[in-house]
Amino acid sequence: MDQTQSFGPILILLVLIVSFLYMHFTNGSGLTRIYIGGARFVLAAILILLPSLNVDLPDWFKAGFGATKIQLGLDLQGGTHLLMAVKLDEAVKTQLRRRADDLKKELKDNKIDFQDIAVDDSGNLIVKLKSSADRTPFLDLAQKSYPD
Hints:
Strand order of the largest sheet: 1-2
Shape: elongated
Number of strands: 2
Strand content: 5-15%
Helix content: 40-55%
Radius of gyration: 35 Å
Number of helices: 5
Order of helices and strands: HHHHEEH
Largest sheet: 2 strands, antiparallel
Oligomer: single chain
């Protein structure tokens, strides 16, 4: 595929640069410079993007500015489809394991002796304490640390 750069867009950009520099160094009115610069910028953008529209252009325009359309990427052409899903059972089990690890740390920090902390198949967190005397401190800790 042979693509050559047309001179039209380059000429437009050079004219824009020269006109901005001229307006800057001649100390024209600020508001006038903004209006004229904005109008030139919009005109240049229209001339450069015109081949991308679905309109018939005259041959002289195609020769000077090129007839190449902007190539859209696959995402802008509508050619991608992304499907994301959460494995809910695994996410719940992972969260329960994290909660069990956090609870183990809290129990150790508060010097409450426990025998085991496990997660059963129904999703319950089972805590086995070594002594029934640790029940009240455990419930207080659970209420304070995990109100949900």
